[in-house]
Design brief:
- The chain has a domain of about 70 residues.
- It contains 1 helix and 5 strands.
- The mean pLDDT is about 80.
- The strands form 2 sheets. Strands 1-2-5 form a 3-stranded antiparallel sheet, covered by helices on one side. It has a two-stranded antiparallel sheet with strand order 3-4.
- A hairpin with a 6-residue loop joins strand 1 and strand 2.
- The longest helix is centred in the C-terminal third of the chain and has 12 residues.
- The protein has about 100 residues and is mainly β.
Length: about 100
């Protein structure tokens, strides 16, 4: 994953005006039914999270990047709603699209 595009009036590189982005977020259920954890990787460089399934039923997450400042956020032990709410507290709430873009 690598968000790259063209210069625009809205995205001046100073933050807060980006028109798109890459937010690799994973939510998984732990061994306890109904208990979830979330992992969010934040990096401005090209990145490739790889989820592999093992023969014993477990899984392994590998995270490959070409550099940059790596930030990893872990949201542990909660319902899917709670984990999603904590994730949105970190990245911000989604914005409402303009009325005309919804096809009306």
């Amino acid at each position: 994953m690598w968000a790259i595009g063209h210069d625009s009036f809205y995205d001046n590189g100073e933050g807060g005006y980006q028109v798109y982005g890459v937010h690799p977020f994973m939510m998984v259920e732990t061994g306890t039914k109904g208990d979830f954890i979330g992992v969010f990787f934040r990096n401005s460089n090209m990145q490739s999270p790889i989820l592999s399934y093992n023969d014993d039923g477990s899984s392994t997450l590998s995270y490959i990047t070409i550099g940059g400042k790596i930030e990893a956020y872990f949201f542990v032990h909660g319902t899917p709603e709670w984990v999603t709410k904590q994730y949105h507290n970190v990245i911000g709430k989604p914005s409402l699209p303009p009325f005309w873009s919804l096809g009306f």
